[in-house]
Design a protein that fits this description.
- One of its GO terms (molecular function) is tRNA(Ile)-lysidine synthase activity.
- Keywords: ATP-binding, Cytoplasm, Ligase, Nucleotide-binding, tRNA processing.
- Its EC number is 6.3.4.19.
- It comes from Cytobacillus eiseniae.
- It contains 15 helices and 22 strands.
- By secondary structure, it is of the alpha+beta class.
- The protein folds into three domains: about 180 residues, Rossmann fold (3-Layer(aba) Sandwich), CATH 3.40.50.620; about 80 residues, Uridine Diphospho-n-acetylenolpyruvylglucosamine Reductase, domain 3 (2-Layer Sandwich), CATH 3.30.465.60; about 120 residues, no CATH class.
- A six-stranded mixed sheet has the order 3-2-1-4-6-5, with helices on both faces. A five-stranded antiparallel sheet has the order 7-8-11-10-9.
- A hairpin with a 5-residue loop joins strand 13 and strand 14.
- Helix 6 packs across helix 8.
- The longest helix is centred in the middle third of the chain and has 30 residues.
- The protein starts with a helix and ends with a strand.
- Bound molecules: adenosine-5'-triphosphate.
- The site of adenosine-5'-triphosphate has 16 residues, from helix 2 and strand 2.
């Protein structure tokens, strides 16, 4: 019964066991012990090479070592090569501050990797089954996971130079228990499996029995659901990657900028996955608090009629929208206010990498260029001041009664918020704003005499 289900599953998922070198992660519990036993029985049929791999996490002192000895003996009796390591996970937890589950997992995978390389293995087989699948999917949906994560546990995924495979995903916990009884395996029971402090155990105890009472084969439906989501996701991911490469303006470590118009032209399912892709790229370790809601919030930020806004995500990631651009970055650009005075020819380098150059000249050149300001020397009280914007900044403009707020000028020109704060503003010695370089000049007309001398200011952009 179990054999038929597993071989049908392996065939359906294209997992080829013939002549393969297979490592089996064995804890000593029912699932992995049954898996090892199953593969050992199939060894002649598939011409498999098997190695059992065990990690003693040293959680329960000598008791955990007993488990290692138990697995070792099990392997010796069946002539299965056995590899084990002892890792002081409690010490590692104290040093790293990681949770027991994450710390144990890291240590296990580290050893798996070493063993995959040592044996040049094709597969690492793990004992996850269909009830684990139900628990995982429900836990992730409950937590608010997005995209591929909702598919739960993968039946196969790349690992080192080989693949991780989970041949028992098609089985229920009960199938495995029955198998253990039938073959008199007497596996070890991990007492932490009963502790209600773990979310998984609460799902196992409170939710699974109800679902099983509704349909004893519920695990098969969840497994099929998982497989469909995985293949759908893989397909959509490919489409998303192709589209996202076209909407990204900049991609640098810790930073991404996208063009909102182009992004919004993508279908919504690809938009969601596009944001997910960005978050995966930016976060080395995804915070558990990050959920599908964060993705929805980014999409809402971009379609909001208000052209600017910022979202603060876990671990200091900021999503800053400014007009047609959406910027994902870990640190907001520091607002560095500055103030420089100029009374003689020279060049001032600004913190944003741009320069302002001042020259005295007799030539009336460049008066119409937006990046140049030409003034009659005798009109201007020095020193000129080059500074960042201040509250209430206003300037007089040609063809306009009264004054205009500098802030509105930035808005008219759609200058992103973070650039406004470091944009230079040039005033005369009285504090009158003469020029917002590159954007606007104050209301002024040059006069030309035979002996005119001018001040020419040039804005040299970064
Ligand atoms: N200490 C370990 N050493 C090697 N492999 C392990 C170890 N613990 C778990 N694994 C592998 O990871 C799989 C999933 O582990 P998990 O802790 O989720 O399940 P489990 O309840 O320990 O399963 P099992 O009934 O096999 O003990 C196991 O089936 C096994 O293949």
């Amino acid at each position: 019964m179990l054999d038929a289900k597993v071989s049908e599953f392996l065939q359906r998922k294209g997992i080829e066991l013939n002549h393969k070198q297979v490592l089996v992660g064995v804890s000593g519990g029912p699932d992995s012990l049954a898996l090892l036993h199953y593969l050992w029985r199939k060894r002649p049929f598939y011409q498999l090479s098997l190695v059992a791999v065990h990690v003693d996490h040293m959680f329960r002192g000598e008791e955990s070592f007993d488990e290692a000895i138990f697995v070792q003996k099990f392997c010796e009796e069946r002539d299965i090569p056995f590899e084990m390591t002892r890792v002081n996970v409690p010490n590692y937890i104290a040093e790293s501050g990681k949770s027991a589950q994450i710390a144990s997992r890291e240590c296990r995978y580290q050893f798996y990797e070493e063993m995959m390389a040592k044996y040049q293995a094709d597969y690492l087989a793990l004992g996850h089954h269909g009830d684990d699948q139900i628990e995982t999917i429900l836990m992730r949906l409950t937590r608010g996971s997005a995209g591929e994560a909702r598919a739960g546990i993968a039946w196969m995924r790349p690992f080192n130079d080989g693949q991780i495979i989970r041949p028992f995903l098609t089985l229920s916990r009960k199938d495995i228990e029955t198998y253990c009884v039938k073959h008199e395996l007497n596996p070890r029971r991990d007492p932490s499996n009963d502790k209600e402090i773990y979310s998984r155990n609460r799902f196992r105890k409170n939710v699974i029995p109800f679902l099983k009472s509704e349909n004893p084969l519920v695990h098969e439906h969840f497994q099929r659901f998982s497989e469909e989501i995985q293949t759908d996701e893989a397909f959509l991911q490919e489409l998303t990657i192709a589209k996202m490469n076209k909407v990204m303006d900049k991609k640098a470590p810790g930073e991404i900028i996208i063009k909102i118009n182009d992004f919004q032209a993508m279908p919504i399912p690809l938009q969601r996955r596009g944001i997910q892709l960005i978050l995966n790229y930016l976060y080395n370790e995804k915070p558990t608090s990050l959920s599908a809601i964060h993705i929805e919030n980014v999409i809402a930020l971009m379609s909001n009629p208000h052209p600017s806004g910022t979202l603060h995500f876990p671990n200091g990631l900021n999503v800053v929208r400014s007009y047609e651009k959406c910027h994902f970055l870990f640190r907001l650009q520091q607002v560095q206010s500055y103030r420089f005075e100029m009374s003689k020819p020279g060049k001032i380098e600004l913190p944003n990498g741009s320069c302002i150059m001042m020259e005295f000249t007799n030539l009336q050149e460049g008066s119409t260029h937006a990046d140049t300001l030409l003034l009659n020397s005798e009109d201007i009280l020095l020193p000129l001041v080059i500074r960042t914007r201040e509250d209430g900044d206003r300037m007089t403009l040609k063809g306009m009664q009264g004054t205009k707020k500098v802030k509105d000028l930035f808005i008219d020109k759609k200058i992103p918020l973070h650039e406004r704060n470091i944009w230079p503003i040039v005033t005369d010695g009285n504090g009158q704003i003469l020029w917002v370089p590159g954007l606007k000049k104050f209301h002024y007309s040059i006069r030309q005499h035979s002996d005119s001398s001018f001040i020419r200011l040039s804005y040299i952009r970064q």
